[in-house]
Every structure is written in C-alpha cells, then in structure tokens.
Write a structure and sequence with these properties.
six-stranded mixed beta sheet, about 25% helix, three-stranded mixed beta sheet
C-alpha cells in the first residue's frame, strides 16, 4: 500500500510538470473534442451482474484518446465463498456489441498497472474487440527509493512525512518527467488499427522454351570453362607486354 501511495504521488508530480506537453493520451476534459467513445463493462463469471469498467473517448484517425469513469473491481467487493482464491476468479470484459474477452480479478490488483487494447474497425471506426491485461510497473528510481525509505522511517517513528525534494523547472527536467510519465502511466490504452497482411514474394523468371506441342525443351547444361578459357585475357596482356618490352641500345 505504501509503494502504491508513493507511485500515486509520483504521478501527480509528473503530471504537474507535463501539463503543457503534447501527448496522445488526453484527459476527461478533452473527451468532448473526440468524436467516438466506447464503454467497457465487466462481469464476474458465475454472476449475473454487469458493472461498468471504463469509458474511452477516442479519435480513430489521430488515435488520440481520453479515459473517463474508471471503476475497476476490487478483491474486497468480489468476495466469494468458493474454495478458489478470489484473485484468480475469472472476469468477462464486455463490449456493447456483445463481444467479450476473459481476464482474472488479479489483473486489477494494486501492485499492477492495467493495459487496455482496443481493436478499431477500418470501416466505421468502431471498436469491435477489447481486452484488459496487467502490466508490472517499472521499478522505482534511486531518488524515489530513498524517499520511500524516508517515509517508512518517519511513519515508524510517528513523525510527519517528509516533503519531496523540489524538481528543477527546466526543459531537461520536463523532458525527463515526460519520459517517467509514459513509464508510470497506470492505465495504458492501445488503439490498434488494421494493417495489410504479409504478401508472398514471387520470383519471376524467363519462360522456358517449348516445342510445337507446348512441351518444355530440356536445356543442355553448359560445360564448365577451363582455366585458360576464363583467363585468356591475362595471357594476352602478358604476351603484349613481352613483345613491347624488347629493344634498347644496339
């Protein structure tokens, strides 16, 4: 829980430094500018209740997107009396068109980030398939690790939590913050569009000779050339040099 809280503070700090930077991932305030949206729902297998998971606003042309109403399931809210561990219970991710994929409740654990893949139709730009999977977050930087230890020591002694060290407001610091934001993004959305499939590479060759009846004529193999046939020009040059090298005083 402490590490999850530290990562949340890190995200808030990074977002404040990169608020003016351009990004493919928008915010809820940008949703009105995007033409399409899709709402994913989830259903615990064995249960008849369906709950909304997230609404994604997106543009199928520019692939910009924004998240809204993220309501993931939690282990406490999905307690079951079955002997199967709660975290391994299966969930069905549902789309409005009726298609679905399967994941586990452990996908939404606090120690994981979530990745949402949306497959977009090339015809009308609608989402025809979706999946949600878990991604392990990147390790803490040395600075974050030192700060985490300071927070642990302060909590153990009952002292106030120390403030984070200030981040220089420079161009290099903003660029580094943007990189960290891309790494620590807790909910990553991938808009997947169709791409042309692999095409066979055909070798073209000259048509073989055929006879009057259309049968292929067997070609005679050319005998391998001798050494003299390959390098006759070398002997010719040597002979000419020998003939022109004569002369001198009488």
């Amino acid at each position: 829980m402490l590490v999850a809280g530290l990562r949340s503070l890190l995200l808030l700090l990074i977002c404040s430094l990169t608020a003016s930077a351009a990004s493919n991932t928008g915010t809820t305030s940008d949703a009105s500018k995007l033409p399409r949206s899709v709402t994913l729902s989830y259903e615990l297998i064995g249960s008849s209740s369906v709950s909304p998971l997230v609404t994604v606003f997106y543009d199928p042309k520019t692939l910009k997107h924004a998240l809204s109403e993220w309501s993931p399931p939690t282990l406490d809210s999905q307690k079951s009396t079955s002997p199967e561990p709660t975290s391994s219970q299966l969930l069905r991710i549902l789309l409005p068109n009726g298609s679905s994929t399967i994941t586990t409740l452990d996908t939404f654990g606090e120690d994981f980030h979530q990745k949402i893949d949306l497959w977009i139709s090339p015809d009308d730009g609608s989402v025809f398939s979706a999946s949600v999977s878990s991604v392990s977050p990147p390790p803490l930087s040395p600075e974050e690790e030192r700060y985490r230890k300071k927070v642990e020591r302060a909590k153990a002694k009952g002292k106030p939590i120390p403030a984070r060290p200030p981040v220089p407001n420079t161009k290099k610091a903003r660029e580094e913050a943007a990189k960290q934001l891309a790494s620590y993004e807790p909910i990553k959305v991938n808009l997947i569009t169709s791409a042309p499939g692999p095409a066979p590479s055909l070798n073209t060759r000259k048509p073989p000779p055929v006879d009057a009846e259309g049968r292929e004529l067997a070609q005679e193999e050319q005998p391998e050339k001798s050494f003299f046939q390959k390098y006759w020009w070398v002997f010719l040059i040597g002979l000419m040099l020998t003939m022109t090298a004569g002369g001198g005083e009488k």
